[in-house]
Specification:
189 residues, seven-stranded mixed sheet
Length: 189
């Protein structure tokens, strides 16, 4: 499943940030249940990002090949500036999103996963089972998020303050945030 939609208004689509929302779930990809993880990401972004942006949404099955292929397509062909994945980060045999992510990124940014696990541990002791990571592929930042919608909000709330500046540093299209929702950090020039 693939969906493109513009969020927050109209404008020249070449200048709008392109954000990939990649839902990794065998059951959701087969239509056995309604995706909630991707919806939680979209809801967070709609509240947080002040500038106009375009969402590219895909729902795919678990697995290294399916996730790696989708990440390459979204970063290279769809030219996403940011890809947020949900699902496939636990210890179950089919949870292979971090492995797929590591196979396509050029630089790992381990601090994202470390922070997400730390803030999640304040909510639930099983957060230590989560294996989220992040990294860059060209001008694209890829961040793995957990599958539970409530965990997505907690994790994005923790790491999003660093994302606009990271996008600046890697040469991605910029995003501006609603400072009432997210205190993004950009050092003074």
């Amino acid at each position: 499943m693939s969906d493109k939609r513009e969020i927050g208004g109209t404008g020249c689509s070449r200048s709008l940030a392109r954000i990939g929302i990649l839902v990794v779930s065998d059951r959701a990809s087969r239509g056995e249940y309604k995706d909630q993880g991707g919806e939680a990401i979209n809801s967070f972004l709609a509240r947080t990002i002040r500038s106009n942006w375009i969402a590219i949404v895909k729902i795919i099955p678990d697995g290294v090949e399916s996730v790696a292929g989708a990440l390459i397509e979204m970063s290279d062909r769809e030219t996403c500036d940011l890809i947020l994945t949900t699902g496939g980060t636990g210890p179950a045999p089919r949870d292979l999103t971090p492995e797929a992510t590591r196979s396509v990124i050029t630089r790992e940014l381990a601090g994202f996963g470390e922070l997400m696990r730390r803030v999640s541990l304040e909510q639930v002791p099983t957060a230590i089972l989560s294996r989220q990571t992040a990294g860059t592929r060209g001008h694209c930042l890829i961040v793995n998020l957990p599958g539970r919608p409530s965990s997505i909000d907690i994790c994005l709330g923790a790491v999003f303050p660093a994302i606009p500046y990271c996008l600046d540093l890697i040469g991605a299209r910029p995003i501006e945030v609603n400072q009432d929702v997210c205190h993004a950090f950009r050092p003074d020039a």
